[in-house]
Design brief:
The complex is a heterodimer of chains A (about 230) and B (about 210). Chain A is an alpha+beta fold and about 230 residues long. Helix content of chain A is about 15%, strand content about 45%. Chain A contains 3 helices and 14 strands. In chain A, the strands form 2 sheets. A 12-stranded antiparallel β-sheet of chain A has the order 5-4-3-2-1-14-13-10-9-8-7-6. Chain A has a two-stranded antiparallel ribbon with strand order 11-12. In chain A, strand 7 and strand 8 form a beta hairpin. With about 210 residues, chain B is α+β, with helices and mostly antiparallel strands. Chain B has a single domain, classed as Clam (outer membrane lipoprotein receptor (LolB), chain A). An 11-stranded antiparallel β-sheet of chain B has the order 6-5-4-3-2-1-11-10-9-8-7. In chain B, strand 3 and strand 4 form a beta hairpin. The termini of chain B are far apart. In chain B, about 40% of the residues are buried. The chains are: A alpha+beta (about 230), B alpha+beta (about 210). At the A-B interface, strand 1, strand 2, strand 3, strand 5 and strand 14 of A face helix 1 of B.
Chain lengths: ~230, ~210
């Protein structure tokens, strides 16, 4: 299995031209690298509140309050997007078993795919990629890198920079960058205090998150179900 | 799922916005009937009040607390200011509706469709300022005299009621002031806004409604 991973890693740069090469670090076992990469993520279960400043195409955007709670060790979550005045705009749940379900979505945030995209971004920001990395090492410019196999033969890199900050980059199979997350080096209660997610492209957007509050996860591991 | 139409969404935003804008409409001891409310509110020119807002959500064990200040000047100037946790100022002055946010130490004006929707608030203000709840096409009001007196507002349209089920205004002891507002979004989520330090008919300069901070 290990030889397959190494082969896949060696071939990847040729298949995905946009991905930076990962240089091996012989002195650092893969397990240690992975531990370093996943240490930047909070430990579920938790309840967390962020302010979210969204910049959208056409000089549009807005600022919202995002509230996310996890259960089952991060295998399910419920997330609510609020206006600054407190009105619940979106209420969505996700679980490994059932995927995304939308309990509430006010226009224009009720467009098809919005809640799915919201949950995908939340998982990218708050959870390490599932499974184990297919490669670990460092970029030429330094920092610990863990590369996971992404959706549809894409790739996800988690990079712990020497400054203490960290990044996540997601590519598709063609090597085009789909998401770029940059986090500072400041943490509070296990969470990065500032996160910036960039989705490039004509329909791209930028989300700037600032940590507001953190609570322990719900007792008993269950999330309250949305109202029918 | 099917959400409300654009018009209904504007009504929703108006519900939240107008719940705050109704601050100057209420005065203690006058809430026995609608005529008394209209009479009591007619003398209110300006309002300045601090508020604490608590948002209750099913996925949070404790409410999300916000603090801020509210300013109103007849006929339709409003400053709706949050100081924490996210510093923001919404200014309504004449036909001008703007929101500013504090980012990295500077105030930045925010663009977006939300500002357009907030204009709808202005369209509804006239009714509420007159204490004329009964003429509202968006909400059906019920006056509940007592200690304290409350006014319950229920959206007239089912599509809107799915998202904001009711708004309850609790009248305060100080004439021209309201003690609190509760906005219910179904059984699980609600917003409680408690006012304090309310000052009526003080001088409020134009700059309160045109500049930040």
């Amino acid at each position: 299995m290990r030889s397959v991973r190494v082969l896949w890693l060696a071939l990847w740069p040729a298949a995905c031209g946009g991905l930076p090469p990962i240089l091996p670090v012989p002195a650092e076992p893969a397990a240690e690298a992975m531990q370093r990469c996943t240490a930047v993520y909070p430990t579920p279960d938790f309840r967390v509140v962020h302010s979210i400043a969204a910049t959208l195409p056409g000089d549009q955007g807005g600022t919202f309050i995002g509230v996310t709670a996890t259960a089952d060790g991060g295998r399910s979550l419920r997330s609510m997007l609020l206006s600054l005045e407190g009105l619940a705009l979106v209420d969505a749940t996700w679980s490994e078993a059932a995927g995304v379900a939308v309990a509430r979505a006010l226009p224009p945030l009720d467009q098809e795919g919005f809640a799915q995209g919201m949950v995908d971004d939340i998982r990218l920001l708050l959870f390490p990629p599932p499974g184990v990395p297919v490669a670990t090492g460092r970029y030429e410019e330094g920092g610990t890198v863990c590369r996971w196999r992404g959706v549809d033969d894409g790739a996800v890199d988690v990079v712990v920079e020497q400054t203490g900050g960290w990044r996540v980059r997601v590519w598709d199979a063609a090597g085009d960058l789909l998401r770029d997350v940059a986090a500072g080096s400041e943490f509070r209660d296990g969470f990065s205090t500032k996160l910036r997610l960039t989705a490039p492209g004509a329909a791209g957007y930028v989300l700037e998150l600032e940590l507001l509050e953190v609570e322990p996860g719900p007792a008993g591991g269950a999330l309250p179900a949305p109202e029918p | 799922m099917s959400g409300p139409s654009a018009a209904q969404r504007r009504t929703l935003l108006a519900a939240v916005g107008l719940a705050l804008l109704v601050v100057p409409l209420c005065a203690a001891g006058w809430g026995d009937d609608w005529d008394a409310i209209r009479e009591a509110t007619s003398s209110v020119r300006t309002v300045k009040a601090e508020f604490v807002q608590e948002k209750r959500l099913p996925i949070l064990s404790r409410p999300l607390r916000s603090e801020g200040a509210f300013f109103f000047r007849r006929p339709g100037d409003v400053r709706w200011e949050y100081r924490s946790p996210v510093a923001s100022v919404l200014l309504l002055h004449g036909n001008d509706v703007r929101r500013f946010l504090r980012r990295d130490g500077a105030w930045v004006q925010e663009a977006g469709a939300g500002m357009e929707a907030m204009r709808v608030v202005l369209d509804e203000i006239a009714l509420w300022l007159a204490g004329d709840f009964e003429s509202s096409t968006a909400f059906a009001p019920t006056l509940k005299p007592g200690t304290p007196t409350t006014i319950e507002l229920v959206p007239r349209e089912d599509a809107v009621r799915r998202f904001v089920t009711r708004v309850v205004l609790t009248l305060g002891d100080t004439p021209g002031a309201i003690a609190s507002i509760d906005i219910f979004e179904g059984e699980q989520a609600s917003t409680h806004i408690e006012f304090h330090g309310t000052e009526l008919n003080g001088e409020l300069a134009d700059s309160v409604f045109t500049t930040v901070p």
